[in-house]
Amino acid sequence: MSWLTEYVRPKIRTLLGRREVPDNLWTQCPSCQQMLFAAELERHRRVCHHCGHHLRVPAPQRLEWTLDAGSYTRVELPKVAADPLRFRDTKRYTDRLREAREKTGLEDALVVAHGTIGGHKAVVAVMAFEFIGGSMGAAVGEGIVAAAKLAVLQQAPLIVFTASGGARMQEGAISLMQMPRTVAAVQMVREAGLPFITVLTDPTTGGVTASFTMLGDVQIAEPGAEIGFAGARVIEQTVREKLPEGFQRSEYLLAHGILDMVTKRADLPATLARVIGLLTVAHQEAA
Amino acid sequence: MRHFLDFEKPIAELEAKIEELRQMSEPQGPEGGINIADEVGRLSAKVERELRGTYARLTPWQKTQVARHPDRPKATDYVAGLITEFTPLAGDRAFADDAAIVGGIGRFRGRAVAVLGTEKGSDTESRVAHNFGMSRPEGYRKARRLMELAGRFNLPVLSFVDTSGAFPGIDAEARGQAEAIARSIDACLAAPVPLVATIVGEGGSGGAIALAAGDAVLMLEHSIYSVISPEGCAAILWKDQAQAAAAAEALKLTAEDLRRLRLIDRIIAEPLGGAHRDPQAAVAAVGDAIALALAPLAELDGTALRARRRDKFLAIGHDTLI
Predict the structure, then answer these.
(1) pTM of the model
(2) What mean pLDDT is predicted for residues B13-22?
(3) Do B253 and A173 touch (CB under 8 A)?
(4) B148 vs B189, B191, B259, B302, CA distance in Å?
(5) What digits encode the pLDDT tens for the residues A14-64?
(6) Which residue has the higher pLDDT, B19 or B190?
(7) What is the pLDDT of residue A285?
(8) Rounded to an integer, what is the distance from CA A226 to the centroid of its chain?
């Protein structure tokens, strides 16, 4: 499910038979099923104002809502070999990539920018779930490494917003190798004495969770996000038990000691600014 | 009883015939015995030819089955065969000892080392005891603890990887499976001592890389190393588990594929017909390959090792894939 498929045509359109109404004027809340008017939904940062459900956010929009207005610059990420395995399932991987690029206007499932958050400089990387489920292949891994290097260069904290179904299967073991590669990226930031903060958004699973995501100095999640290593279906089939209520949701992970906090989307920029400010004081004073 | 895979059927039939002849020959006189010996010799040569042919042309899906062969030597077989004075060390110091990952200290060819292995077990009882080689967070936390211990006492780390993956369970998730794997990879990359990882059977995804982000990564000829099982991949991308053979092909999970992509350092040749036909020879071959990989690493100090290891992983995809 991508954010695009969450859009549904309002029933009213078929009733009136009017064609000039754009398709994306209304969105249905996947949680409470209420119809949400697009402009109003955007004003609430894609949080349902009926039930508080946090809908998924396209990656470029996330940058806009996180970094100070007009403060940031998108970074061009390194190019990687496309389709090294010449992978083909029911579709060619190169076709999937092309379609995802056309659909999203993104090169791959990560965007990176540098700028300020509440006046503090920061490098922010955002995973794009809308791009092949935010899956991590060489491009995402390379992007995380590039973001880490940029953070070290700028002596700025690195903040990563995660949203991923896991590894990019179409890149086979190359995608698996992005786990140690992104961990190495975190080590670079750590050794430079800079904070590494992860913000886990819906969903964050598989190899992405089990690598850089879980190495945050501070780990924040949005409410209700699905977070875990193994998929819920796989677990159900393996243990043949009913999964507990709220299993693999942000609040469950918080209760199990895996996250520092669960923070509403509206409060994220201020929280990030405060955490960065507190963690970089000594750094600034020493400088 | 030898366990035969589906594609080994012609070999199984030949060997059954040989066995039959051997049993016939015993009560008979010397004359009949000679003829039978000839026939056994002829059939044995045929078995060898058949094995050579079959094993030279294994498809990725067949390799997957060999890698999972119930009689294939397991991590503990390599530990038993290669490590003297082996002293198992248990526990993550927080919750439990996870038997899916065995670990300890001992000597490899005279030199003190730390050892880690994902252990699948070799009969029903031990398979259950080792949870079929699928670790919970405690296993990865034990691995991390032992890698840190190895670093403090300057012991090279040898890991033997054979797992279908980390255990997908409610308890595992509740106790932070993802965090445990991430920290284990972190410990691999941070270790100030040589880390030689050998994929001896199945290198299953995050559960494998947690012990395999090493200076040298070796793979037995018929082992596999993949981001997801062929069955899992088929279920997701083909929406049909029966397409596992096609998925195995597409995933490029054989040792040869991984070497071509320069994701591993060396392939270790297996005895004719796979490691399960001659476990002792397989264990010896792995020992020789580890010794060879370890020698140049032992010359480097901790800082150099870490820098080299990190650069090696960061360089993946830079020089090779285009």
Answers:
(1) 0.93
(2) 89
(3) yes
(4) 11, 7, 29, 13
(5) 455 445 555 678 999 999 999 999 999 999 999 999 999 999 999 999 999
(6) B190
(7) 56
(8) 12
For chains A and B, count residue pairs whose Cβ atoms are closer than 8 Å.
Answer: 177
Q: What is the pLDDT of residue B319?
A: 64
Strands B195-204 and B216-220: parallel
Q: Residue B209: which of A180, A229, A235 has the nearest Cβ? A: A180
Using an 8 Å CB-CB cutoff, list chain A residues near B253.
Answer: 172-173
Cβ burial B13-39 (10 Å sphere, 16+ → b, else e): ebbeebeebeeebeeeeeeeeeebeee
A52 touches chain B (CB under 8 A): no
Determine contact: A104 vs chain B, CB below 8 A.
Answer: no
- The angle, 0 to 180 degrees and rounded to 10, between the axes of the packed helices B177-190 and B302-314 is 120
Q: Is the separation of the CB atoms in A41 and A58 below 8 Å?
A: no
The pLDDT of residue A13: 45
- What does the pLDDT read at residue B30? 56
The helix (run of H) or strand (run of E) holding residue B233 is helix B230-233
Q: Is A257 exposed, middle or buried (0-12, 13-18, 19+ CB in 10 A)?
A: exposed
What is the structure's pLDDT at B26? 63
Question: Is the domain B65-314 a CATH 3.90.226.10 member?
Answer: yes
Least Cα distance to B156 among B165, B146, B166 occurs for B146
Closest Cβ–Cβ partner in B189, B253, B317 for A172: B253
- What residue ranges define each of the domains in chain A, with the CATH number in brackets? 1-55 (no CATH), 56-286 (3.90.226.10)
Residue A71: pLDDT over 70: yes
The answer to whether A229 touches A200, Cβ cutoff 8 Å, is no
| Number of Cβ within a 10 Å radius of residue A32 | 12
pLDDT of amino acid A6: 46
Query: For residue A11, is pLDDT > 60?
Result: no
d(CA B16, nearest CA chain A) in Å: 37
Name the β-bridge partners of A125: A112, A160
Residue B188 parent element (H or E): helix B177-190
ipTM: 0.95
Q: What is the DSSP string of B95-136?
A: S---TTEEEEEEEETTEEEEEEEE---SSHHHHHHTGGG---
